[in-house]
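Would you mind giving me a polypeptide sequence along with per-residue structure tokens?
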Amino acid sequence: QVQLVESGGGLVQAGGSLRLSCAASGRSFSGYTMGWFRQAPGREREFVACITASGLYTYYANSVKGRFTISRDNAKNTVYLQIDSLKPEDTAVYYCAAAPSSSSVSKDYNYWGQGTQVTVSS
């Protein structure tokens, strides 16, 4: 089992920045690909970014490339999502998740956090 707890969400003005964190506990964090997904009201959960277990490779949804940066610190069992140039359409609940290999598909992720709300005002 891997337990995931997100933090860092909040209310921010358009153009601002946030850094989300996801702290992991339980089974070996460093063996998992870590991903971020988001879900806006009335919409399906969508892939945002993922990072391989080693941290060497990252993948992003086209809608966030150049504004979002995923990173991880395996010594701290934590994955981060730096969000810059926030837009109102980034408003959503952001979830971190763990998977055995890189994927943009939510069903490939075995473990999920409870989510953290990001609200961007215009």
